[in-house]
TrEMBL record, chain A:
This is ABC transporter permease. The chain crosses the membrane at residues 28-50, 119-140, 161-184, 204-221, 262-288, 308-331. It comes from the Bacteria. InterPro entries: BPD_transp_1_N, MetI-like, MetI-like_sf. It comes from Kibdelosporangium phytohabitans. Pfam families: BPD_transp_1 (PF00528), BPD_transp_1_N (PF19300). It is found in: Cell membrane. Residues 119-327 form the ABC transmembrane type-1 domain. One of its GO terms (biological process) is transmembrane transport. It is a multi-pass membrane protein.
Length: 341, 601
């Protein structure tokens, strides 16, 4: 990689400016089109996938309750199970076009509204954790890669590997046992959380500390290791020797020359993970009773709440697809080689 | 540089949070309100009393709305609620309830018989309003309110369950404007119970305030919060730390581990749940056609009885439930002592072996008996994956049945799969269980011919697929018997018949395990009084009895509670200090280095 990277850079620099307008539009259209296709396929898949799952929603809903046969039949009719599957599928598509995911069986509210309520907490928790983990991981990765085999490298890479291998829920439980006395044991706010903005934000932040810490510890290792590896690969590149020959300080060589190139694979990784942010914290949400989408997914699965499951599935997939699209577009901005091809 | 700036920002946020943490932790107590916080693990499906079917939802309706009658905390006998007295006509078809005067809705309007008549007649005429409790008004002829204090209900047949109508009475003046009975009601709810729902955040908490005008007298606390915990381990931590005051659903290991905590008092008592293994007796559908794929050998009642004889309930109580359960006897759980048939289920593998030998089930060389067609007796045992009882007990059951020459293959699958298989009769043996109510009618009805599903395995909630003329006759008699003493006898007789038909074998009745903060709360009213529970009662007694104070045996060491709080505060301050210092060092280092770099560029 190092051998051919520098010449490519040169050739880009010397090549006549490409006809940007058309290329960009075509590139954008192709990527957006692909993304839309993926989402459409998921819409179809989501409907049939959850219907193949075992379990009759009506009997799950009424389990352990005194209900008569007439009540069961009435419920079945109300949920639309007495209609042929294709009619149900058509109703589902028509609903989706109108932005309606259907009525949740388990929560007696529109599935879209429930998902909306839970999306915020999840993005807040996982987003904060993802940004912190990426920042910490990249920073440590750059440090340790540059000072390869130094004491910091040996120590922190080992620690990162350990955290990366620990199951997040277990880490969460341990942190809860250790620090549960100082930080809240669960939830996103206390029941008597003040309503004024700043005190409320402090209350929420206070509840966020442990789950965010758990997620950061679980996630930062991969960024550190990837960043470290890709920096190590750049270390012996000729352009670094050139930079040093120009008399630049070692730190500047690292920051100005080595890091931007080493960041490319890591940036892709970060964006792929940002897509997973929405779905990524299911187990940690469970440990800390975080009122997010992960929890909701578990509930919806247990109840076989089809409209809710379909809705969650679509939202999660859209998040991943959109972030992948961003990663593609960003890579084009960051990496001249992608533009050239 | 960007990365470092972000890191410094993150450090600052953490420092801010840590500094604020002692202040936030103190805010709950600072207001001086007496609020009981109970942990719950189940999410609420709806606040609409006509719709809600979850345990949490029905608990909330019991707290928010008064019912015609409620259940005595002593022994679950029906006692006056909104109705202060009642009488039945000579033909047992007309029930006249006298509604208590002076009871007010939380908006100040009086509660009248018209409210009750509106509630019941809406459920009879509107299918949506019948969602949760429609079964209670089935077989009714009419409901009327001739005056504000008189409610008259006419039924088509005599019904012994008329004092066990678990139907929340709603205010007519609020609900008569409602057109969609599936919709969520606006908050705060207008009710007549001891607590009123004020605020609700899905998957976070439900806040209730005390009803100062409650007719039995205002509760001794200001409010009641239900706080969600998705994880019982976290809930235990919350209890130890004091984030919550009361919790249920502990597992034996957690319960035993809390024994040493001086601030916590434990409570265990008779639960409502019966645990059983179903034995498929050759299931038939509602139109008497065979359904499912049960092993035909199980049609022989002698084989089923031998299986029942080989189950050692005491071993399950000791080993699976850690002693926190009661040994199997009658079908109605022992907490409902009036209806419970106390004769213990026999464990006698030798007798089981003798029975099978006599019935002609010959043992093969491998120790497995052959059925009467000569095929080896191999049975599937279906259980819920991840459920402690099913996972552990299936191992014991397999070995016990091996001892009497029956090969068992345990299959632990997802709840939904068990549910599908048992409602469609696609099983040989299956773990099952029900929560019984103070009135035994519903769990008894599960074993009647009428509980069988249609040919698709749908349209009913079957249990063991028993369809027995004697049992059904007794069931109808008990449903029409309005003399309680005679009804109790009939119900006990039914339990004998059930044991005799052996389409199910009881495993035991697990006790709910509860814990509360003894340093803050006086003992709660349990139901039943002797050996009962605080949460998940059939009534509001536990929460209604909540009172600040100390539970006696914990009082001596309860002062440790204050120290615990201070320790938390000190740790919080120290952590905050460290983080702040760290943040400052980071910021200073950053600006110094940045300065140096700027100079050289």
């Amino acid at each position: 990689m190092t051998d051919f990277l520098a010449p490519v850079e040169e050739s880009i620099a010397e090549a006549p400016p490409p006809s940007r307008g058309g290329g960009v539009v075509r590139y954008l259209l192709a990527k957006v089109g692909g993304a839309v296709m993926s989402v459409l396929m998921v819409v179809v898949l989501g409907f049939f996938l959850f219907r193949v799952m075992p379990g009759d929603p009506v009997s799950i809903m009424t389990r352990g309750r005194p209900v008569s046969g007439a009540q069961l039949a009435e419920l079945r009719g109300r949920l639309g199970f007495d209609k042929p599957l294709l009619v149900q599928f058509w109703d589902y598509l028509v609903g989706l076009v109108h932005g309606d995911f259907g009525q949740s069986y388990a929560f007696n509210a529109p599935a879209g509204q429930i998902i909306g309520e839970r999306l915020g907490p999840t993005v807040l928790l996982s987003g904060t954790a993802a940004v912190l983990a990426a920042a910490l991981g990249l920073w440590l990765g750059a440090k340790t890669g540059w000072h390869r085999n130094g004491p910091l490298d040996r120590g922190s890479s080992g620690v990162a590997l350990v955290f990366w291998s620990i199951p997040p829920w277990w880490l969460g439980v341990v942190l809860l046992m250790v620090a549960g006395g100082v930080f809240p044991t669960g939830g996103m706010q206390s029941p008597d959380s003040p309503s004024a903005f700043f005190p409320h934000a402090v209350d929420v932040a206070h509840h966020m500390v442990l789950p965010v810490l758990t997620l950061v510890l679980a996630l930062y290792g991969q960024y550190q290791l990837v960043m470290r590896a890709s920096l190590v690969e750049e270390m012996n590149a000729d352009y670094l020797t050139t930079a040093r020959a120009k008399g630049l300080r070692d730190e500047l060589v690292r920051k100005r020359h080595a890091l931007p190139n080493a960041l490319l694979p890591t940036a892709t990784l970060v964006f792929l993970h940002l897509g997973m942010v929405v779905s990524g914290a299911i187990t940690v949400e469970a440990v800390y009773s975080w009122p997010g989408l992960g929890q909701l997914t578990a509930e919806a699965l247990a109840a076989k709440d089809l409209p809710l499951l379909q809705g969650i599935f679509i939202v999660l997939v859209i998040a991943v697809v959109v972030m992948n699209l961003f990663a593609d577009l960003l890579l084009r901005v960051l990496d001249p080689r992608v533009r050239a091809s | 540089m960007l990365v470092r700036r972000r890191l410094a920002g993150a450090g600052a946020v953490v420092a801010l949070v840590a500094v604020a943490s002692p202040w936030v932790a103190g805010s709950a107590q600072a207001q001086g309100e007496k609020v009981l916080r109970a942990g719950v693990t189940q999410e609420l499906d709806s606040l609409n009393p006509f719709i809600t079917i979850t345990r949490v939802g029905t608990d909330l309706t019991r707290l928010t709305y008064e019912y015609l009658t409620t259940y005595d905390p002593k022994d679950y006998k029906p006692v006056p609620g909104l109705a202060e007295k009642w009488e039945t006509s000579a033909d047992k078809l007309t029930w006249t309830f006298t509604i208590r005067s002076g009871v007010k809705w939380s908006d100040g309007r009086p509660v009248t018989a018209g409210d009750a008549a509106f509630t019941f007649s809406t459920m009879m005429s509107n299918k949506d309003a019948a969602t949760a409790n429609g079964n209670f008004v089935q077989g009714w002829d009419s409901v009327t309110a001739p005056d504000d204090r008189t409610l008259v209900i006419r039924t088509k047949q005599p019904r012994s369950t008329m004092l066990a109508l678990d139907v929340p009475i709603v205010p007519k003046h609020v609900w008569e404007k409602v057109t969609d009975f599936k919709a969520e009601p606006p908050l705060p709810l207008v009710g007549s119970g001891p607590f009123l729902v004020q605020d609700y955040k899905a998957a976070q908490f439900i806040k209730l305030t005390a009803n100062r005008d409650y007719w039995r007298g205002a509760p001794k606390i200001d409010g009641l919060d239900f706080v969600y915990y998705k994880n019982v381990d976290a809930e235990v931590q919350a209890l130890k730390k004091g984030d919550i005051d009361l919790m249920s659903r502990l597992v034996p290991a957690q319960y035993d581990a809390l024994k040493g905590d001086p601030n916590v008092r434990l409570n265990t008592g008779a639960g409502r749940r019966l645990n059983e293994i179903l034995i498929n007796p050759g299931a038939t559908s509602a139109d008497d056609r065979p359904i499912g794929d049960g092993n035909p050998a199980l049609k022989d009642v002698r084989l089923r009885k031998a299986i029942a004889l080989s189950i050692d309930s005491k071993a399950l109580v000791d080993k699976v439930w850690g002693g926190y359960a009661q040994e199997a006897a009658g079908y109605i759980p022992p907490g409902f002592s009036e209806f419970h048939w106390p004769e213990k289920q026999k464990f006698d593998p030798a007798a089981a072996n003798r029975m099978l030998d006599e019935a002609g089930y010959a043992k093969g060389a491998d120790g497995v008996r052959a059925d009467l067609q000569g095929k080896p007796l191999r049975l599937r045992l279906l259980g819920h994956a991840g459920t402690n009882l099913d996972e552990q007990a299936s191992k014991y059951v397999t070995s016990w049945l091996k001892d009497i020459g029956i090969a068992v293959e345990p299959q632990m699958v997802a709840d939904q799969k068990v549910n599908d298989a048992t409602t469609g009769a696609n099983f040989d043996l299956a773990f099952s269980g029900w929560s019984a109510n103070p009135d035994p009618d519903y769990v008894l009805s599960l074993q009647t011919c009428g509980a069988r599903p249609n040919a698709d395995g749908k349209g009913a909630t079957p249990d063991s697929f028993l369809c027995d003329p004697e049992y059904d006759r007794l069931y109808t008699e008990q449903l029409q018997e309005t003399d309680r003493g005679k009804r109790v006898e009939l119900v006990k007789k039914m339990q004998q018949v059930l044991a005799d038909r052996a389409t199910l074998v009881l495993l035991g009745y697990d006790n709910p395990l509860e814990a509360y903060r003894a340093d803050r709360w006086a003992p709660f009213q349990t139901q039943p009084v002797d050996g009962g529970v605080i949460m998940n009662q059939q009534g509001y007694w536990g929460y209604y009895s909540a009172e600040r104070g100390r539970s006696t045996d914990a009082a001596a060491s309860a002062s440790a509670g204050g120290d615990g709080g201070n320790t938390g505060l000190i740790i919080g301050v120290v952590v905050a200090g460290v983080v702040v210092v760290g943040g400052v060092v980071l910021l200073v280092g950053r600006s110094r280095r940045r300065g140096a770099a700027d100079e050289r560029e």
